[in-house]
Prior knowledge:
Elements: E1 2-13, E2 16-22, E3 25-27, E4 31-35, H1 42-49, E5 57-62, E6 65-66, H2 72-76, E7 79-82, H3 94-99, H4 114-126, H5 142-155, E8 160-164, H6 172-189, E9 192-196, H7 200-206, E10 209-214, E11 217-222, H8 224-227, H9 230-237, E12 239-245, E13 252-259, E14 274-275, H10 276-279
Parallel strand pairs: 4-9, 4-10, 7-8, 8-9
Antiparallel strand pairs: 1-2, 1-3, 1-5, 5-6, 10-11, 12-13, 13-14
Amino acid sequence: MVRLYTDGLNIGYSERLIVKDLSVQIPDKKITTIIGPNGCGKSTLLKAITRIISHQSGTVILDGENISKENTKLLAKKMAILPQTPESASGLTVGELVSYGRFPYQKGFGRLTKKDYEVIDWALDVTGTKDFKYRPVDALSGGQRQRVWIAMALAQETDIIFLDEPTTYLDMAHQLEVLELLQKLNQEQERTIVMVLHDLNQAARFADHIVALKDGEIVKSGSYEEVITQDVLRKVFNIDAVIGRDPRTNKPMCITYNLLKGVNQHEETIDPVYDLAASAY
């Protein structure tokens, strides 16, 4: 089932197109991950789908309606987004920040209702941040802050949650903590999760559906088995990857890779490839 899709989407800044004639379907109640090199349009696509920025042409359809014509508060009850660099929460407690997720439901002077407080406590509980409710957000670790921001998104009570690189600046343990939380929300509450990730192995491990972008266009869209392949990674990242199997999940994983050098980045050339790890020394 597909509730959300784009049709012929063009997004740009001034005269430069970042996303070009892009048509993509987001599977409902699944985890979709968007991968691709820096500057390929991943974040731009998320911002356009969630109406943070406007698109030049094409449409974004949710539940049969063009989102550009949707009431703002009504749209905010259907989808939430956690940007790559959330706005500063300086001076706010955790509970105060999470309460902002109730904005779409507030009327009049915006006072919180009993229902609002119940949802806030539920979001804190689900994300394991209830003990931080009265602590300043600034006093938390990176992983704790990220879970609090996710709690705020949950407080919106949306079926669809977008996250732009939710593991950025987190260490390995906190990255896994955040991704396992998102997987739990998907599996236990059937939330549709759409996120941008840089780590290919994390994408393969946690996503049901992967969209690989390059230069604002889709190179491949499908299951992790269809996307995490040597051919697709060569086209998207200009690398010669060795693909194996994760011994714990049996999903594909990138074991190592070399950078392909030459004029035509889609094909191997007579120039020798070199190991990225070795090049760092």
